[in-house]
């Protein structure tokens, strides 16, 4: 009688665990991608016009036909400055990044191209790793065929999830993109699963984690930047907020170590007060000057007019 009772409980616990893992596997895209922040709408709350930015709506088709929306924001109608392809962090849409992008334009004297990944903002479809990689390629292909920008000065900037997107795009396009900037990005979703759901740490993980990792093969969006970053030929700037409450700062350090082992033109800068989303604010002047000098040091590709910057600031 007693034995039957205990085995019932054990089966119960096993069943709950199996069901939870099953649900995690089935609904992982819902967990990994957050185009709509609870309490907000999927649509853009504002357009760049609200911030008096000069912009164009760009509609693209990804390679599998999904319709994508982007904003191309220009510093000036005839701007020949660098163009930064900005890949956003996970939650919300590109409109939520406009305040940062406005300052980016001013401080870096650049144009900014902002893509809504599939399922985000005004783009159709549903997010997936393969789909978003194709979307980012569609964005780059669009920029490459434009005649109003200096294509020798394309820089990719990715924050958090956007860093994973940008890293793959740079790896795949060594001759089209001049440099990469990564901010508070993670080594892989496999490692993040263990950070967010510690009970999974034994079953999911990257190369550095122990355990049988039997669930890895079920993860459809591993975003394993740690396996990509060593193959990137472009110079990389790592911007790491040491108070990141979401992605442990050790992830950025591991990515840097991997990249630097393969390419000397990598630079790592940390910001003691930087949190996951606000490093660009709390880093203050130092943050923007770091990016400016990274662009300046890679002048072979970029030709920022820093005298003009000094006049403005
Ligand atoms: C992504 O692009 C590849 C290569 O063009 C293609 O084989 C694949 O079907 C595409 N997948 C998605 C989801 O767009
Ligand atoms: C080993 C390697 O990939 N080196 C690359 C580092 O980056 C420069 C450009 O900054 C490339 O020219 C090298 O090939």
From TrEMBL:
Keyword Transmembrane appears in the UniProt entry: yes
Annotated TM spans: 6-27
Domain of life: Eukaryota
CC terms in the record's Gene Ontology section: membrane
One Pfam family matching this protein: Peptidase_S9
Database matches in InterPro entries: AB_hydrolase_fold, Peptidase_S9_cat
Keywords tagged on the record: Membrane, Transmembrane, Transmembrane helix
Gene Ontology molecular function, alphabetical: palmitoyl-(protein) hydrolase activity; serine-type peptidase activity
Entry's Gene Ontology BP terms: proteolysis
Keyword Transmembrane on entry: yes
Ranges for domain Peptidase S9 prolyl oligopeptidase catalytic: 133-294
UniProt xrefs under PANTHER family: ALPHA/BETA HYDROLASE DOMAIN-CONTAINING PROTEIN, PROTEIN ABHD13
Name of the protein in its database record: Peptidase S9 prolyl oligopeptidase catalytic domain-containing protein
